[in-house]
Design a protein that fits this description.
alpha+beta, Ribosomal Protein S4 Delta 41, Chain A, domain 1, Structural Genomics Hypothetical 15.5 Kd Protein In mrcA-pckA Intergenic Region, Chain A, 2 domains, five-stranded antiparallel beta sheet, 9 helices, elongated
C-alpha cells in the first residue's frame, strides 16, 4: 500500500501549515526547509501556487497522485462545484471518517486502524482506507478492538460536536455519516479552486 512515510515536519514547513496536526516546529521555524529556506525571496509562479495547493491537499488526506487524479475526475463528472465535490469525497474516505470521529489521533493512525481491520462499517469489517462511506452508514470499532489503548486515548475528551455531519454514539463506539459535509464546515485550509484550475490546464 503506497503512502508517504517521509519527514512530516518538513512538509508542514514547506506549506507553512500544520497539515498533519499540531506541529511545534512551525512556531520555531516558520519558513521553508532547506539551507536557504530562511532567506528565500524567489517569487512563486501561478502554476507553482496551484501545484502547491494540490500537493497540500494530497498530503493532508494521505492520497498519492494517481488516486488523487482519479478522485478529481470522478468529482468533475458529478453534478455540483467540482472543487467542493472533491473535498467532500476526500472527507468521506473511511480513514478520514475514523479520524473525524476521534477514534484515531491522526489520519495516518486512522489508516493503520482500518488496514489492521479494527474498523467496521454497518457491522462488517472493512480494511480499505479509501473505502467511500455513504450517508446513513455507521462506522465503528470492532468489538474485540474496543479495549485498544490507542483508541481509548484518542476518544478521551474528544469533542464530537465539531463535525455536524457526523453523529457519535458513545455506548456503541460508533458514528453515523448523516450527510456529506458542506464546504463551510470542512476546516482544512485548502483553496480547492486552484486545484481545479491546475487540472484544467
Amino acid at each position: 500500500m503506497a503512502r508517504y512515510i517521509g519527514p512530516k515536519s518538513k512538509i508542514a514547513r514547506r506549506f507553512g501549515d500544520a497539515i498533519f496536526g499540531a506541529d511545534k516546529v512551525l512556531s520555531k521555524k516558520n519558513y521553508p526547509p532547506g539551507q536557504h529556506g530562511n532567506n528565500r525571496r524567489r517569487k512563486t509562479s501561478e502554476y507553482g501556487i496551484m501545484l502547491a495547493e494540490k500537493q497540500k491537499a494530497k498530503y493532508t488526506y494521505g492520497v498519492l497522485e494517481k488516486q488523487f487524479r482519479n478522485m478529481f475526475e470522478k468529482a468533475a463528472r458529478t453534478n455540483g462545484i467540482t472543487g467542493e465535490v472533491l473535498l467532500q469525497n476526500l472527507e468521506c474516505r473511511l480513514d478520514n471518517i475514523v479520524f473525524r470521529l476521534g477514534i484515531a489521533p491522526t489520519r495516518a493512525a486512522a489508516r493503520q486502524l482500518v488496514s489492521h481491520r479494527h474498523i467496521v462499517v454497518d457491522g462488517e469489517v472493512v480494511g480499505i482506507p479509501s473505502y467511500s462511506v455513504k450517508p446513513g452508514q455507521i462506522v465503528g470499532v470492532r468489538e474485540k478492538s474496543k479495549s485498544l489503548e490507542v483508541i481509548a486515548d484518542a476518544l478521551a475528551g474528544f469533542n464530537h460536536s465539531k463535525y455536524p455531519w457526523l453523529e457519535w454514539d458513545e455506548n456503541t463506539k460508533a458514528g453515523k455519516l448523516l450527510h456529506k459535509p458542506e464546504r463551510a464546515d470542512i476546516p482544512e485550509n485548502i483553496k480547492e479552486q486552484l486545484i481545479v484550475e491546475l487540472y484544467s490546464k
